[in-house]
Amino acid sequence: MTIDFVAIATPLVERGFRVTPVHPETKMGVMKNFQNFQLTTIEDVRKYAKYFPHHNAGVVGKRGVGRHMFLDIDAEGVVERIEAEWGIRSKVNAIPV
């Protein structure tokens, strides 16, 4: 199976995530200074796909007001427990990769 960077990164950018190409086997960022420079537009994704056509896409999370927060939950019932204990309704999004 061939990995298609554009196909993976495009829906993430459309949802407002900041992405960077990552090595398909190690999941490590491949762009120099990716912590401070991420792709945020479809045009950026297409431009950098020339250099990384078969790489995966990683979402870069940065702390700060107005930034995304990520919580990786792999166990059944954890989301419901958090919602019940905190009295909140979460926006849970499963992003296929």
In short:
By secondary structure, the chain is α+β, with helices and mostly antiparallel strands. Helices cover 28% and strands 8% of the residues. It contains 3 helices and 2 strands, in the order αβαβα.
Please tag this protein with its features.
97 residues, alpha+beta, two-stranded antiparallel sheet
Plain-language structure description:
The chain has 97 residues and is of the alpha+beta class. The mean pLDDT is 84. It is built from three helices and two strands; from the N terminus they run αβαβα. The longest helix has 10 residues. It is 28% helix and 8% strand. The chain has a two-stranded antiparallel sheet with strand order 1-2. Helix 1 packs antiparallel against helix 2.
Low-pLDDT stretches are none
Strand residue content: 5-15%
- Euclidean distance between termini CA atoms: 13 Å
In round numbers, the mean pLDDT is: 84
Radius of gyration: 15 Å
Major sheet details: 2 strands, antiparallel
Going across the biggest sheet, name each strand in turn.
Answer: 1-2
Supply the number of helical segments. Answer: 3
Task: Give the beta-strand count.
Answer: 2
Q: What's the order of the H and E elements?
A: HEHEH
Please state the overall shape, judged from the principal axes of the Cα atoms: elongated
Helix content percent band: 25-40%
SS class: alpha+beta
